[in-house]
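May I ask for an example protein's residues together with how it folds?

___
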Amino acid sequence: MKRTITGAVLVLVILCAVVWNIYSFVALAVAINILCLTEFYRLLQSKTFLPQKVNGIALSVLILIASAMAFYQQNLKFVLINIPAVFGVFVAELYRKASHPFYNLALTFLGIFCITVPLCLLVGVALLPTGRMFYHADIVLGCFILIWTSDTSAYLIGRSFGEHALFKRISPGKTWEGSIGAFLSVTYMAYFISCYFKSLSAGMWLIVAMIVLIAGTYGDLIKSMMKRSLGVKDSGTLLPGHGGMLDRFDSLLGSVPFILGYLLLFYEA
């Protein structure tokens, strides 16, 4: 029940932010970024390695907003503001007098690479270049629905019928039965979405669904590998019944770069 209530509230918040307008959607992306990056830095921090949490989060927000402006205005000049900001993080490490400065820098930028960059590309999905400024809320919403369908069906079917582990060394709970169930579910959902969200054809929605299934699963496994190496069960406790933000958005972070790449190559307004 706790898992269901938390999931329903999270879905409602995302739906409202995506549907309302581009500004609420970017605000949602910024919030997801801050919360996920906070968890990431907390998990990777130790007595030896100290990522720059405040500077890293501030830089990530700047990168995300600058990227949104660049996509919205179709002008890459907006991303140039990130150059002095990135350099500033290196300069800040000079004054920390840490014992392992480049490990700290590596962890700081790893979080931005793994979390902020995919969220910038999610904004890119919403603002696909079509020769005019236009917010593709239907494409973003369709991607979220496919991710939710894949995750939920894999969990429920795997829990009910799963016997053969998909990747036992990393995540014993994931099964081939769950993955097959997710494949069937997202295939049907892609067709259903195509009946209402006409920005993409049924064939394109099906390919997006396969990207979500494959890349999202690997994103989940990579996050599980990180947690296993750190000896933790969940990335956080922010979402009762679900764990942390990274636990909920790993599939999104893993699949969005491939979705945008596919759409940039084949999308036609």
